[in-house]
User: Fold these one by one.
Assistant:
Number 1:
Amino acid sequence: MRLTSAQLEQFDRDGYLFFPSTFSPEEIKVLTDEVPSLYAQHRPENVREKGSDAVRTNFAAHMYSAPFARLARHPRMVEPVVQVFGEPVYMHQFKINGKMAFDGDVWQWHQDFGTWFNDDQMPEARAMNVAIFLDAVNEFNGPLMFIPGSHKLGVLDAGHDTETTSYPLWTIDHATITRLITRGGLVAPKGPAGSMIMFHSCLVHASTSNLSPWNRVSVYLSLCTVSNHIRRFKRPEYIAHRDFTPIECLPDDCLLRPYEVALPWKDGTPEAALR
Ligand code: SIN
Ligand code: MN
C-alpha cells in the first residue's frame, strides 16, 4: 500500500491518517478467533484492568500466536511506515488492547514517544503506531481521541502516573491539554472492524472508559526505524523489544494463508525477556 502525496501532506499536517475498512471481515475473523484464548492465558504479557479480570492489554502476541505473527509482517500495516521514514523498521512494541465492554478503563492523555524517550531512551520520534480495529469503534466504546497537529510540538512535559490505571504512563496535565485542544480541536476516528489508523509517536491522544456493552479490541504495532533503536533496556522485553532486525513483510494475503512464521515464545516467555 503506497501513500499518495495528498495523504503524506495530510499526515504531516494532522499527525494521523485513518483508513476505514482496510482489512476484510474474513481477515479480521482470523484475528478475533484467536483473542479469547490469548486473553485467557495467565502469562505476564496479559495486563488486567485494575480490580478486574478483564484484559487491558496483551503484549507481544506476535511472539507466540501465528495469526498475530503474520499480522506483524503485514504489508498494509508496515509499508506505509517504511515509506514515511524511508528506512526499514523493527517491532518496538506489539499490543492487543481490550477496552472490554463495561470494564475497559481510560488511557490518560499522553504521547507514546514520551514513554519511549523517558523509559527506553529511544533517540528520536522516528517511530510510528499503526492500529487496526478488531471490533467496530463507535462513540460509546471508548474511541481513541487525537489532538490534530499536536505531534508538531515535540516531547511535552509529562508526569509518571502509576496510580490511575493498572498500567504506568507518562501523562500530560489538564491545563496543557485544554490549551492544545483550544488550538487544534479534537477528533475520534470511528468505523467498522478492519479499519486502520496510522499515527505519529508525538501525537497527543487518550481514550475514555468503555461503559457500552460492546468490546473495543484493537491491535497496535509500534514500529521504530532500525537506526533509532532503543538504548536502554529498563522495561521488560515483552513491552519494549530488543531485537532490531528489520521486518520482512509477507505477501498481502498473509492473514488468509498459513505462511510459516517463527513463534519463539510459544512455550513461554524466556526468563531474560521478563526483566
Ligand atoms: C494507547 O494509547 O497506547 C492505547 C489507547 C487505547 O487503546 O485506547
Ligand atoms: Mn498511546
Number 2:
Amino acid sequence: MTGAPPDPRIAVVTGAARGIGAAIACRLAADGHDIAAIDLDATACADTVATVTAAGRRACAIGADVADEGAVARAAEIVREQLGEASVLVNNAGILRDKTMLKMELSDWTRVIEVNLQSVFLTCRAFAPAMRAAGWGRIINLSSVAALGAFGEANYAAAKAGVQGLTRTLALELGSFGITVNAVAPGFVVTEMTREVARRVGMSFEDMVADQLRSIPVGRAGEPDDIANAVAFFADERASFVTGQILYVAGAPRG
Ligand code: NAP
C-alpha cells in the first residue's frame, strides 16, 4: 500500500530502555513518531522518554515482559489509552543465555526462545489488528547474524533464525492489509549486551572489539544508531514495496 501513514504516527519499540532499542526510539521520534517505549522496568525508559519529548513528540513508558501474553495484551491497551493506535511496531527486546549445547539447561533454551521469538508472535498478534483496520502498518523485527550459526548460542541462534521465518511468513499474511514486515540482523554492536558477553568470558571489551574487527571489513564496530538507521528505512512510508526482507547490518556481507 502506498498511502500515507495514519496521523499521528505512533511507534511501539520493545526493549527501548537502552542500547539499540533506545536508539531506535529516539530515531523514530526524530522522524516524527510518538513513541511507546516498552521494557521490563518502565522507569528504566526515563532517558528514552526524555529524548523523545525533547524532540517534540509524545512518549509513554510501559513496564512489560514481552514474553508474557497477558503483559503484552495489557501493554497494547496502555498504548491505545495513552497515545492511540500504533502503526509501527519494532520488536527489539532480546536476551542472551550463552552456553554450549551440552551444558545448556532447558530453562536457558526456553527463556531465550520466549524473549527473542515468542515475544514477536505475541506483540504482532496484539498490534497488527489495528494496523489492518487502518490499512497501514510497519513491523520491524530484530534478528542477528547469529541466525547463521553462532558457537555457544544454540538457543539464541535458533530464536533469531525463527524471527526470520516469522518475518517472512507475516509479510505474506499481512501484505494485503498494507502492512510490511521486515527484519534487521545486526552484527557486532557496542551495547550493554556485548559488554556483558566480554565480562562473562573474562575479556576486556577493548580486546573483544579488536577480535571482532578481524571479520568486519569496514573496520569498526557497529553503533546502535547504525541499526536505528536501518529500522527507520523500513518504517518509512517510502519503503512500502519492501517486505519480507532480512537486512544484515554488520559492516560485512552476511546472509
Ligand atoms: P541490551 O543492551 O541488552 O538491551 C536490551 C533491552 O531489552 C534491555 O533494556 C532489556 O531490559 C530489555 N529486555 C530484555 N528482556 C526483556 C523482556 N522480556 N521484556 C521487555 N524488555 C526486555 O541489548 P541490545 O544489544 O541493545 O540488543 C537489542 C536487540 O538487538 C536484541 O534483540 C538483540 O538480540 C539484537 N542484537 C544485538 C546485537 C549486538 O551486538 N548488541 C547483535 C545482533 C542482534 P533489562 O535491562 O531489564 O534486561
Number 3:
Amino acid sequence: MLTERMELAKRVLDVSTESAFEVLAQAKQLERQGKSVIHFEIGEPDWDTPDHIKEAAIKALREGFTHYTPSAGIPELRQAIAEKLLQERDVHLDYENQILITPGAKPNLLYAIFSLANPGDRVLIPDPSFPSYWALTKLAGAVAVPLTLTQERDFSIDPEQVRKEAKTGAKLLILSFPSNPCGSVLSERDVKDIAEIAQKYNLWVLSDEIYQKFVYEGQHHRSIFNQAGMTDRTVVVDSFSKTYAMTGWRLGFALGPSALIEKMTRLQIHLASCPNSFVQKAALQALMGPQDFFKDMLHEYDLRRKAIVDGLNSIKGFHCSMPKGAFYAFPNTLSTGLSSKELSERLLNEALVATLDGASFGTGGDGFLRLSYATKLAKIKEGLQRMKEFMQEKL
Ligand code: PLP
C-alpha cells in the first residue's frame, strides 16, 4: 500500500489503458469459469506465423544470433525494407539513415510524438482512433485536438477540419488509415488536400500505416509520404505484426527524415537498446520469402468482412457501414437505446460476446462498437447469432 509520502509521479497517475487488453482479460476470466466467449475484441490475426518465418528465427537462434544488434536494427533488414518500399510504393529511402527497426510499431508512436511535440503543442488526432495516440500525446505534455470522424463521411478525415485546426496553430497531425477502429481509408483527393494543408501550415505528419496492406475492393493504400513535398515532414509507422501474423514477435519500423530518425534512434537506445536480434532475421525472411500467405489471408478477411457487416445490419438497433480497410467493423448502436459502454458490457456478460466500446477510442466513438473480424467465419456467425438473440430477448 502506498502512503501519502510515497506518491507516484503525476504523469502516470491517470495514464489511460487500451480497452482491447482489458476486455480480453475479462473474457479470459469468464473462460476460466468454464464459459465459452466469442472474441471480437482483440485486433490480431488468427493465423499462425508462416513456417518459413519461424524457421528463420530458429536458425538464427541455433547460429547464436542472440546478441545486441545496431540500435536502429540490422542493416540487411533496413535495406530489405527500403527495397520493398521502392518496389511496391515507389518510395526512395536511404536505408542507413531513414529507417528505424523497433520492437513492434508502438514504440515508434512514443519516439515520434516525443521527438516532435513540445509541452503545450497541439497534436491533431482523428477521433475515434488508436488509444495510444491520446495517451502518449498527454504523456508528452502536448494537447490532443480531436478531429471528429463521422459515419456520414465514411469515417475519413475532413481536410477542412484539419485546415481549421492548423490555422490556429498545430505541430503534428496523426493520420491512421486504414483506421483502427473504423476500417476507413483516405481518398486520393483527401490525401492530396491534407498534404497541401500540412505544407501550408507547417505541420509534421505521423502516418500510422500498419494496416496498409489490408485494403479491399481492389483498392490500394494511399500514403501521404508519397505526396510531393511530404517526405521531409512525414514519419511513417509500420509493423510486421498484422501483415505477417507476428503480433507476439514484436517487430515494427519507422521511416522518415534522417534528422528525426536519428533522434528516434537515440530514444530507442535508452528504451530498448535495439530490437530483438533473432526476430529481425525472421522479419527479413518474412520480407524476402513467399508472399502468397498474405493474399490468402486477405481473401479470407474479405469474406468475413461481408459476413460480419451483413450480420450486424440484421440486428435490431445496429447500423454498420462497409469498412474498406483493416479488419474492424464499427456499427452504430445508438438506436439500441443503450450507451455503447453498457451495451458492450452486457454483451460480454450476458451473451458472452466480447466487443469494444467505441468511446474507448475517443469521444467520437461513443455510440459505436468495435468488432475485430480477425476470427474464424464460424465464430463470427455464432457471435452474431448470440448478439441477435440478446437484442431480441433482453432489450
Ligand atoms: N497502430 C495501430 C493503429 C494499431 O491498431 C496497433 C495494434 O493494434 C498498433 C499501432 C500497434 O502495433 P504493434 O503490435 O506492431 O506494436
